Amino acid sequence: xxxxxxxxxxxxxxxxxxxxxxxxxxxxxxxxxxxxxxxxxxxxxxxxxxxxxxxxxxxxxxxxxxxxxxxxxxxxxxxxxxxxxxxxxxxxxxxxxxxxxxxxxxxxxxxxxxxxxxxxxxxxxxxxxxxxxxxxxxxxxxxxxxxxxxxxxxxxxxxxxxxxxxxxxxxxxxxxxxxxxxxxxxxxxxxxxxxxxxxxxxxxxxxxxxxxxxxxxxxxxxxxxxxxxxxxxxxxxxxxxxxxxxxxxxxxxxxxxxxxxxxxxxxxxxxxxxxxxxxxxxxxxxxxxxxxxxxxxxxxxxxxxxxxxxxxxxxxxxxxxxxxxxxxxxxxxxxxxxxxxxxxxxxxxxxxxxxxxxxxxxxxxxxx
Length: 368
What we know:
Elements: E1 3-8, E2 15-21, E3 24-28, E4 30-33, H1 45-50, E5 56-59, H2 60-65, H3 69-74, H4 78-82, E6 88-91, H5 94-99, E7 104-105, E8 110-113, E9 120-123, H6 125-135, E10 139-141, H7 153-173, E11 180-185, H8 191-204, E12 208-211, H9 219-230, E13 240-242, H10 248-256, E14 261-264, H11 266-272, E15 275-278, E16 281-284, H12 304-308, H13 311-319, H14 323-349, H15 353-364
Parallel strand pairs: 4-14, 5-6, 6-10, 10-11, 11-12, 12-13, 13-14
Antiparallel strand pairs: 1-2, 2-3, 7-8, 8-9, 15-16
Helix pairs in contact: 6-7, 7-8, 10-15, 11-14, 13-14, 14-15
């Protein structure tokens, strides 16, 4: 068993557990920083680890296009290639294919154009698994079709059935036993389709399950509904991963509904545009109010950035377009997320998750 359930919150579906992988144990609930091209933007692996990161995510689609999985495999696998000795998850590329213009999705797989050469590229379930096996991540994902929002039910139903068929093909294609293959539940915003997909995947007995297709513009209210009616169909003794989510408020609502794992590019993407997360909400450090502000980004934060620098200094770096601005801002934002997850885990252990969520949101969402 890779997942161990340690504690359940008495008032919600929030849960505290551990996921065991070949490269270490992960404490859940957990947020996974995204290293799309086998690199965190503006952060070294040592800086990522110092933030409290336990597992990171890289992307199959992008690594397949460049530098290619054969080169990564020759380098000794993704861990050695990128200098990260902790657990890694690779997503299958389904979401990236969904995001591309002029892609063509058939029963067999997806056709799209190489972003550099313009050549036609074909990706199917077996190939997606083969690429991920060559990359060598600890947790790998099924190749699925990510359904757009909004979407009529007829298309959503046909797409969901395709994802179920592709899941079986992915499972049959897997040859490495040292990688944990997660199934992905699709179904758009239709409860009966989510139920059908979840039940079909559970019968295939994957070591973990993800909920996909929820970060495509549906909004927080629909996100809560989808997660709320999907998680009851997922096994209690397997990890649950909500893909591509998100903002702190999204994470808290989803932990409350029984989700264990999250990933998103938001912490580093926002950092590069001078938007930093604090317990009192987001702040934009290019604002002229911070030019003479000699407090740290977050007064009680113990990240490297807050221990050593002021808002005024970061304001200066962003104004001067210095690379260091993105580095220091990214360190703080990733630390903020990982520290929030640590606080969430502690609140579940102590049976006070509801109170923690209420206190966090009262400060974080307070009107400015």
